[in-house]
Amino acid sequence: MHLDHATIVTTDLDSARHLFVDVAGLTEGARPPFSVGGYWLYANGSPLIHLIDATVPAAAGRMAPRIDHIAFRMESAAEWQALLGRLRAHGVDYQTAHVPQMGPQEAQAQLFVALAPGVVVEFVTALHHAQP
Question: Residue 17: helix, strand or coil by DSSP?
Fold first, then answer.
């Protein structure tokens, strides 16, 4: 089993698209002609993030935004440094944290970007990839 996609319902499609495309490095791609606005953002040829416009009234019982956070793993120091460069170049604020080593799992570096109130995008890598 693997993650197919995550859907984020937001009132600010453009800011969400900017973060995922210009900063995280996903690409905008084909999207079915739904009756509500949005974007499908691709990684490795697959639509990983679906953004949906929350300005249209939600179905009964559904609230927006409807996700707490989504995390992307960076597998190398080069990926991590490139992400940091794009965050700085686009003036995106972020917070960092560390997950200590636990048993055989090595320590992790985390970086958090607030996409909207109540929605966070996390980037994570092995701590040794995040060392300057």
Answer: helix
